[in-house]
Design a protein that fits this description.
The structure is a homodimer.
Chain A (H helix, E strand, L loop, with lengths): L12 H14 L8 E2 L2 H8 L3 H13 L3 E4 L3 E4 L4 E4 L6 H8 L3 E11 L3 H7 L5 E10 L2 E11 L15 H9 L5 E10 L2 H7 L6 E10 L5 E10 L3 E8 L6 H8 L10
Parallel strand pairs in A: 4-11
Antiparallel strand pairs in A: 1-3, 2-3, 5-6, 6-7, 7-10, 8-9, 9-10
Helix pairs in contact in A: 1-3, 2-3
The structure holds a DNA duplex.
Chain lengths: 264, 264
DNA sequence: AAGTGGTCTAGACCACTGT
DNA sequence: CAGTGGTCTAGACCACTTT
């Protein structure tokens, strides 16, 4: 790997480094999983300050081209996984179709009384089962799943094991099936809780998705907040034309959702 | 605004600053559009290096809480705009429903011969109209729109003015209407072209969306690549349960789409 | 012990904005 | 012109991983 720096260019040095390494990765001249030279190695060989190198690497990382491991070095990322965000058949089912191994680890399970915001989303005052789960894909800790399920129509749901498919339990036991959902997606930085669970550096970029899931009768059956490692996924979805819908009114009703912060 | 730093904490100093300023913004103690103290002011008053302050501010910016203007200072961001990414009624129509002023500026218009990747997406070898437009929402330059339209069924399309609604032209003149679309969404960093058009700093975080839009007969009518200022939007969408679909096959067919780089 | 990335300092010069 | 953010230097110490 050879990097050429043009001094006195209108382009910042860190940007020249960023672009050239990115090109090497895109062209496959450095392959997935391979290690890049260390920060000090680059800074010595290029005669630049380590801070400048770090800025270039930081940008490569925030775009998902490489990642760092403390004490080890800098590595080229694997290819992103396409994640269908309008999937209503469950995460377990989706990864099975993709042919990827999914492991689900239970982190927290508790029956809680919903606060006003949550009970408005789920349109019930009944108790709610809060499930916090970690999704491990092909050995990588990639997704945190916070689900809130109204227990009204799901008696004794808390008794079950949720290391498999939640939607399968809902259907097999209660004959409840997701039919539609309303979602939002945004990116944020990982707080210390997420950092520990996903084993990523502090303030790493993650994607947050919030959804209200409804059954065939438009009764809410789940409110869910997901956190995805942004650098490991591309998000895909299908859309269909719907005849008549007051978008503006729709937004206003749902807006408070986006500010919902889960209590654990 | 008062910031307390605990030295020798396990939490990095930049993270303490980041968290406290974020809290002030979330609580509304610093309001939208208000100016934060300058980097030097903060570094002097807190007795810290400017680099440490910059790191804290950088994280606030990448999460959309504030933004910088060169030569001016650091400001608190306005509230994000909810953007319906499964909208098939056109951008112009959407912003009108939201009650926001949208201005569309034509940047580039050319009839091109599609390369192999583009003609596969549009399923035609006919010429393609390439449109590059800038969307200005309430005076903010927020969206870049790259559209590729097969001219086969849209004779003389290039003659029209596209500073209004493209979909209105397609329907009024050719009776062609979007019926479904397949899309992907991801984030990346702004290159110099995007930086100039959206008037943002180099390597600013943006959201990229690619879509193939189909009519009622499943004939592709548009391939589009959008760039959004990530910090100014939250992305929302609806999903509906669809009975039977081979997700894995679906992904594999579409995957090359995600790597498509527009030629201008 | 040697090497890695994570954090931090105390400067410097540049380009841009406002007065 | 003074003030702002943008870039960059040449160090330093820490925590972590591997040998």
């Amino acid at each position: 790997m050879k990097i050429n720096i043009v001094a006195n260019s209108h382009e910042p040095i860190y940007y020249q480094i960023y672009k050239q390494i990115k090109k090497y990765i895109k062209n496959g001249e450095i392959k997935c999983g391979e290690q890049l030279p260390s920060e000090r190695e680059l800074s010595n060989s290029l005669g630049l300050s380590r801070v400048t190198i770090r800025k270039a690497i930081k940008d490569l990382i925030s775009e998902g081209f490489c990642y760092k491991e403390r004490g080890k070095g800098i590595f080229v990322s694997k290819e992103r996984i396409p994640l269908k965000i309008d999937n209503l058949k469950g995460t377990a089912n989706y990864f099975r179709l993709l042919g990827l191994n999914l492991e689900t680890k239970m982190l927290f399970k508790k029956v809680i009384k919903p606060d006003i915001r949550l009970s408005e989303k789920l349109k019930t005052r009944s108790n709610v089962l809060y499930l916090k789960r970690l999704r491990i894909v092909e050995g990588e800790r990639l997704i945190i799943d916070n689900a809130y399920l109204p227990l009204e129509r799901m008696l004794n749901l808390e008794k079950y094991c949720f290391e498999g498919s939640l939607y399968k339990i809902l259907y097999d036991i209660y004959k409840i099936q997701p039919n539609r959902s309303k979602s939002m997606i945004t990116h944020k930085l990982a707080d210390s809780d997420i950092v520990n669970l996903l084993d990523i550096p502090l303030n790493y970029m993650i994607t947050e998705r919030q959804s209200i899931v409804y059954d065939i009768n438009n009764i809410p059956i789940e409110f869910v907040i997901n956190y995805y490692r942004s650098d490991r996924f591309i998000f895909i979805y299908d859309s269909l034309f719907t005849k008549d819908e007051n978008i503006a009114a729709f937004e206003k009703n749902l807006l408070p959702l986006w500010h919902y912060v889960p209590t654990s």
